[in-house]
Design goal:
Radius of gyration: 15 Å
Number of domains: 1
Structural class: mainly beta
């Protein structure tokens, strides 16, 4: 299944956090322990494509793939925020896109040829900073593409 993450309303390139000030904020999908496909925090929008393998068993549906994190029954994809300095990425926040929160019927349809699951994410939180923690509506909406 293809998961397309559409990020909108990015918070900007600077952010004051508990460990200091980030002056070159970027966001990307976390693959393993590393950020991938970084987008500047002041971009108009961000889009990521994530391949997810669906595993069906008598116990239900499970998700797998390089960007899938967490234990069975609690799988998610991270969007990771960091301050970029050359080749260095200093992560300071992450947001979880909970795969188990997606309606199973939507997942099954998205797994069909030519379809995809679309997650639209508001990337700026209520205080104007990079959105983090478990994403819940209205900060995230899932649909078919």
């Amino acid at each position: 299944m293809l998961l397309e993450i559409r990020g909108r309303h990015l918070p900007g390139r600077s952010f004051a956090h508990s460990d200091g000030n980030a002056t070159n904020v970027h966001v990307g999908v976390q693959v393993g322990r590393k950020p991938a496909d970084l987008v500047p925090g002041d971009a108009e929008a961000a889009t990521w494509q994530v391949e997810i393998a669906l595993r069906r068993s008598a116990d239900g549906l499970d998700f797998a793939g390089p960007a899938v994190q967490g234990r069975r029954g609690d799988r998610f994809v991270y969007l990771t925020w960091g301050d970029v300095d050359g080749d260095e990425f200093a992560m300071f926040r992450r947001a979880k896109l909970m795969l188990g929160a997606v309606d199973r019927e939507l997942v099954e349809i998205a797994d069909s040829p030519g379809r995809r699951l679309v997650a639209t994410v508001e990337l700026t939180d209520e205080r104007g900073g990079p959105r983090c923690a478990r994403l819940r509506p209205p900060a995230i909406a899932f649909s078919l593409g």
